[in-house]
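Hey, resending since the last one bounced:
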Amino acid sequence: MSNQKITRKQMQSILFMFWTGSLVVAASNKEVKQDYWICLLISALLFLPIICIYDRLIKLYPGKNLFEINDAVFGKLVGHIITAIYIMYAILLASQLTKIFAVFIRVVNMAETPELITAAFMVLVGALVVTRGPENIARLAKYTWLVIVIILFTFFAGFKDMEFSNMLPVMNSDFPTILKVSAIGLILPLGESVLCLTLISNIRPEENIKKIFLKALVFNTIIYIIVAIRNVAILGPSTNMYYFPSYEAVSIISLKEFFSRFEVLIGINLMLNGSIKFCVCLYASSLGLSHIFKLPNYKAFTASCAILIITLMQLLYQDLQQFFNFIPYGAISSVPYEIILPIATWIGAEIRARMSSGTKSSKTSTNNSPEKT
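The structure tokens again:
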């Protein structure tokens, strides 16, 4: 177990960048089009009960991370099985992220560069960060301000290219479709933050976990909405024709005749946010393996997990169309990790807490009962 501590602001930054790591592919939706910002709001509201579950688990088991909580609730055997499931989930999520990162770089800039080279660079950097400890991941997240500045800059710089009539009519999509897209937004990416619970034991005990998640969620939702409005207002109906609408929208922006090619800023954001998300996934998988094998240092598994991630990455998705077609099915397959298991853990924790309090009260009443004469 690492003795390094993560502050409240650092954890908020990690969550924010973890979620915005999906912006490159989650900045629009062809089913709801201009109503996508409404789906983002609904997704945030749907995530609030999950935050309450996280907060309750951490209050019941202070100082424990996700894997230790599973052991405490379900016992070591079942807890280790659940930990193994989360390890596989973390590796798969990291592989998907690495694939998207490599494809994005190849499609928009370096068509002749093999995806494996780009992916290897990302994995190597992530492994170096993770081996230096969770505190180093938190330090990397300090560039949250840069991500926000870039997004706000591209929004205001693109004002002259925006047609806000593209946002009309509001609620043009039927409610079942809006709810379906909102549910996907809940799972991808908000629900993926269950892996961030592996960092909880490194947070100072006095910090309010609920407040940390809520503040990060508010900032994330605002930024997502700003990006969605920017893309639709600039690209209009053609938004959903592009795999990377943020890149296409920002590529149109220019200031006078001297400043253009602002799309490079999207690449910077992708690298920053994607690196944080990758590091959290790699850390979670390494920590999970060290927990199962009862080794004090998770770093012994970092290289193995990194190699597995880059190997799996090469087996995923032959093209972008296949990836985007898989997103709804990926959301469904993620429900057990992100919704069912946390709820089951919370229920089990509440039962154990009630049983424990009942046992204590029974012992207290027995000790306080008068002796028979």
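The chain has a mean pLDDT of 89.

Sorry for the duplicate.
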